[in-house]
Design a protein that fits this description.
Strand content: 25-35%
Distance between the termini: 21 Å
Largest sheet: 8 strands, mixed
Length: about 180
């Protein structure tokens, strides 16, 4: 069964990026990508992905022309005109209403081919999916650092149930199920 998963990392004080969208706090941390709840195992479960425009722009600005490493179809939520990576299946769209989000989610699930949908980045994107009752799981790696400001992990009220807790390198990693209202 396809699940929609927000898989991300955060600082202890709940920021996924620092001021000016910096990820220095993350990129200097030790983690075993092959280890428990690591990225390598997770990416094998993903059939499609969705991200916000800020996440996509960060990849473009910081990763160079070869930074796009995803083979899966990807959607970027944006109102801006953005350039796709050559040869990548990237679709730019807006989801201004719950109906738009429901239609997008149906496309994401269909493209996933039985695998999971990954909400890659942007706390606001994850919050949109949660608010529409479309988010199933949150997997978060918590780094032992605080920033005091930045982009919040999940800027919405979302009830969660803890399913798994582990350590991976410097990170405490927690897998949660999303509790849907009603």
């Amino acid at each position: 069964m396809t699940r929609t998963v927000y898989y991300t990392a955060t600082t202890l004080d709940g920021f996924i990026a620092g001021p000016q969208h910096s990820l220095d706090w993350l990129l200097t941390r030790e983690a075993d990508h092959e280890g428990v709840m690591g990225y390598k195992a997770f990416e094998k479960t993903v059939g499609s992905l969705v991200m916000g425009a800020s996440t996509y722009q960060w990849i473009r600005d910081n990763g160079g022309p070869d930074a796009w490493t995803y083979d899966q179809p990807a959607w970027v939520l944006t109102h801006r005109t953005m350039e796709a990576y050559a040869g990548a299946d990237i679709r730019f769209t807006a989801a201004d209403s719950t109906d738009d989000l429901l239609a997008l989610h149906a496309d994401l699930v269909a493209a996933a081919g039985g695998l999971d949908v990954w909400v890659v980045g942007g706390g606001p994107v994850a919050a949109q999916f949660a608010g529409a009752g479309l988010l199933d799981e949150v997997v978060v790696s918590i780094a032992p650092v605080t920033l005091g400001a930045g982009s919040p992990l999940l800027p919405a009220h979302v009830e969660l149930v803890t399913r798994e807790v582990a350590q991976n390198g410097e990170f405490a990693v927690v897998r949660y199920d999303v509790v849907r209202p009603g």
